[in-house]
Design goal:
By secondary structure, the protein is mainly β. It has 2 domains: 76 residues, Immunoglobulin-like; 127 residues, Sandwich (Tumour Suppressor Smad4), CATH 2.60.200. The chain is 3% helix and 42% strand. Strands 8, 9, 10, 15, 16, 18 and 19 form a 7-stranded antiparallel sheet that branches. A 5-stranded mixed sheet has the order 12-11-13-14-17, with no helix packed on it. A hairpin with a 5-residue loop joins strand 13 and strand 14.
């Protein structure tokens, strides 16, 4: 039986929050939330998706019911804290001093490595006009730009990668930023990027997804 304690997750206003439930196809998920946030929820047997409006702020209680094929149900809930965007046009001076913005004279590419092998087919160019989603494909969601589904060497690691795990983009202030939009933690520089956290991508820092894939940033 599915069960979760009333944990608190954090998301920024205007972002999409995905909560994976990973149930069998014959299971029904019913979800709702307080303060009108329920109007922005969709759910299926694999995940609960909340498209948080830009104007929302504060703590919201999300309640959902797992109903199996025998009509047995199990009530669950979690708290969702919605905060203002933290990286954007209003970068503070500390960020501007500590991080180097992208250069007009360089091109930036994401490469994926597995052990010491470069997965050439998964390379993607990053520019100001697009963001890159890394994850694993699913029949229920749009495929990520970099799809790791067919490259796992250890099947046990598949569950450690979300369908949409990382989003990489360039902010208005020209900083390359990595956001964890999945429900699994991603490692970087002996640190952990938890769900809904984001950081500015520093030079020579790599991100590790599902203990298998190393994501590198390359300048050319």
């Amino acid at each position: 039986m599915f069960n979760i304690s009333e944990d608190t997750f954090t998301v920024e206003a205007g972002e999409k929050f995905v909560f994976e439930v990973n149930q069998a196809e014959d299971v029904t998920i019913e979800a709702d939330a307080s303060k009108d946030l329920g109007n922005y929820i969709t759910a299926n047997h694999e995940e609960i998706i909340i498209n948080v409006p830009e104007t929302f702020r504060g703590i919201y209680k999300v309640e959902f019911k797992v109903i199996d094929s025998d009509k047995n149900d199990n009530n669950n809930s979690f708290l969702l804290r919605v905060k203002p965007p933290s990286i954007g046009e209003k970068e503070d001076k500390k960020v501007e001093q500590e991080y180097e913005p992208v250069s007009k004279n360089k091109e930036y590419y994401l490469s994926v490595w597995q052990e010491n092998q470069r997965l050439v087919d998964l390379e993607k160019k990053l520019d100001n006009n697009n963001s890159i989603i890394i994850g694993k494909s699913s029949s229920l969601t749009k495929n990520p730009d970099i799809d790791l589904r067919d490259y796992f060497k250890d099947e046990k690691n598949i569950e450690n990668c979300s369908r949409h795990q990382l989003r990489i983009f360039i902010t208005r202030n020209k900083y390359i930023t990595v956001k964890n939009i999945g429900t699994n933690t991603v490692k970087y520089d002996e640190k952990k990027l938890k769900p809904n956290d984001k950081v500015i991508w520093e030079k020579n820092i790599n991100f590790v997804i599902a203990n298998e894939f190393i994501i590198k940033l390359e300048e050319r």
